[in-house]
Amino acid sequence: MEEESSTGATAQQLPSNLLKYDVDPSEGWQIEENDHPIEEVRLTVNPTDNPNLPVLTFRTWLLGVSSCVLLSFTNTFFGYRTNQLGVGSVCIQIISLPIGRFLAASLPEKNIRLPFTKWSFSLNPGPFSIKEHCLISIFAGTGAGSPLGVAILTIIHAFYHRGINLMAAFLLVQTTQLLGYGLAGIFRKYLVDSPYMWWPGNLVQVSLFKALNQKEKRKKGTLTRLQFFLTVFIASFAYYAVPGFLFPAISTISVLCLVYKKSVTMQQIGSGLHGLGIASFGLDWSTVAGFLGSPFASPASAIINTMISFFLIIYVVLPLGYWTNTYKAKHFPLISANLFDSSGQIYNTTRIINANSFTLNIHEEERYGRMNLSLSFALVYALSFASLTASFTHVALHNGKDIWKMWQNTKEYGEEKVDDVHMRLMKRNYEPVPQWWFYLLLFLVIGLSIFTCEGFNGQLQLPWWGVLFAAGIALLFTLPIGVILATTNQGNGINVITEYIVGLILPGKPLANVAFKAYGTISMGSALYLLSDLNLGHYMKIPPKAMFISQLAGTIINSSVSFAAAWLLLNSITHICDPSKLPPGSPWTCPGYDVFYNASIIWGLVGPMRMFGKLGHYSALNIFFLVGIVLPIPFWFLSKAFPRYKWLKYIHIPLLLSGGSGVPPIHAVNYTMWGAVGIFFNYYIYRRHKNWWARHTYVMSAALDAGVAFMGVLIFFALQLNKNVGINWWGGVADDYCPLASCPTAPGVMAYLCDVCSIGCWGSFHGSTHLLCITIE
């Protein structure tokens, strides 16, 4: 029987350009006119579906749960080590395919009835399908990250050396991860159902699924997508042995540092890791995609906005502020995320803590002096303030009308004519997730969250209204940040604003601060993660209920396994996270959790009033909140007043403010390499060789990521598991040999290893561990 398209035409009567998808209507395949409004989606996602394919099967549960447990334990385990190793879901995405096909070939076709129910399932419902493969990858993706609740548990145990109730800790990890599911239900209509919310990053996943699963006839002189993927994957896998082990120095090559070995100024300008990164480059895919993600997943307009932002911030604002000594910038490194005292030394935070109450010792802080930031770190906070408020204005101006129209349409799929090809297929073949599922989960998790914070003798310091307030902040920011993420693949976090707000309301309570941050930041993050996966399921035609069940089950498993792994390590390794007490060479130094602890000191213990308020050095930075609100308005008016200048509508103020503000911790070389690769492929290749771009770009992105991931795992387990083994030669160090780039340049400031300075510097004291560097202006 022939399937009809939405226009009433049979599959045989469809235009010839639709027959290229090589599907058989007699097997249940449906083909629609590919009229999606976004060209990248039209070129990547097939306008087809087969509702008869198996989805949530025994194989899906077996491989999905196993991979989620494996990644949850592995990533939590490595998160405590000096050499952290993050294993992503792309590894499972590749490995699960041959295992799934093996199970399909070997498992018996036997029906199993669940005890005390009428439900049954087949051990082997037929060939392993692309939809099963997608759901397994979604399961694995939920285990790829360690929950923020684990970080709170860690600083309580390992840094504050306080106990916490076992059940309170478990509920904290679970509730912080689950709170965002209700938010996803509220906003899925706007961020998933709308075809203009196209989530560019998901196109990489779609391309990889197609390359691995679809049969394709190879034309003479060309490669199929799978052959192309395997070719690039093998090359990436083999090559990463060079920057990953044999020659790590090629990850960042800073030419100016190699030429000017005794000049602080030139190394500040040239260092790709600690400076401005001029003439610095890297021959390593992890340098390109390690911090900012694959550049192939971002549209050219977003890349260009981000790079303009980077150039303005790093090459104009930062040098101008540093060399005019704004905020005593020359007393500190040009780029650093550390805290400093007035003499330019690392701030001794333990000196200002009341040991018994874990509150701020105000008298000691006033005697010691206020905390200071490097100018680059101060800019990170200032631009974070501006980009958050700019997100509201930008979305209201550019997307307000569309959002309002969708808001008025309250039904699941709407009463209006739906023109999106993928929405038509989803609406025709599958039932949506009832809205009350999301609301019920939201109310249950909020109740558990309040119980977690108010119960157990108030160990977390956060009152019940703090939980509701944090959820309200997440509700406020999910839509504007989601719109930006869904259209540019670049999004802002709200950790700064949550820390700021609760720091003003509850100063001197570091645990309340991090708990509030977790409920506010992670609930929004998990909502956006779920929405992104719902969009991926939309493209892959996964039944929405199967998506919801898989994502919810994966999140609960990830939270449980991560909690168990963290609790085991914290209670079995003596002096974990304390390098001063650990044996020499011990890997359990917890560098990431140390940063999280310092944030609890800045925002929770000291508080924003003594940092960014009238009692701190950086109160002027609050003006950036107003700058963010106002700045998108004139550019929006210009785009409306001069519609013939189409480039005006691509000016994205939130990206211009936040795109280049990741330095630190992102390095300059990461930005320059990411931008160069992204513009070349997503602008030049996309315009000049669109067919090649559509066929290969996203597949190449996934292959490069997978090759680096697999070789990274192999190197770690084979050579670096017990100790950091490397080749002892000049290129065997992952450094750009710019030691002077982090030197302060103010006269009389003492800094470690800064015994050689720029021209005109004299007076180094070589007899101590701290060397005095005096610069003559």
From TrEMBL:
| GO CC terms of this entry | membrane
Query: What's an example of a GO molecular-function annotation for this chain?
Result: oligopeptide transmembrane transporter activity
NCBIfam families membership: ISP4_OPT, OPT_sfam
Which protein, by its recorded name, is this?
Oligopeptide transporter 5
Query: Which positions, given as ranges, span the membrane?
Result: 61-80, 86-104, 134-160, 166-187, 222-239, 273-296, 302-323, 375-397, 436-453, 465-486, 552-575, 595-613, 620-638, 668-686, 698-719
Which InterPro entries does the record cross-reference, listed alphabetically?
Oligpept_transpt (IPR004648), OPT (IPR004813)
Q: Give the family this protein belongs to, as stated in its UniProt record.
A: Belongs to the oligopeptide OPT transporter (TC 2.A.67.1) family.
Report any one BP term from Gene Ontology.
Answer: protein transport
Among the Pfam families in the record, one is OPT
Its membrane topology: Multi-pass membrane protein
Q: Main location per UniProt?
A: membrane
Keyword list (alphabetical) reads: Membrane, Peptide transport, Protein transport, Transmembrane, Transmembrane helix, Transport
Location in or out of the cell:
Membrane
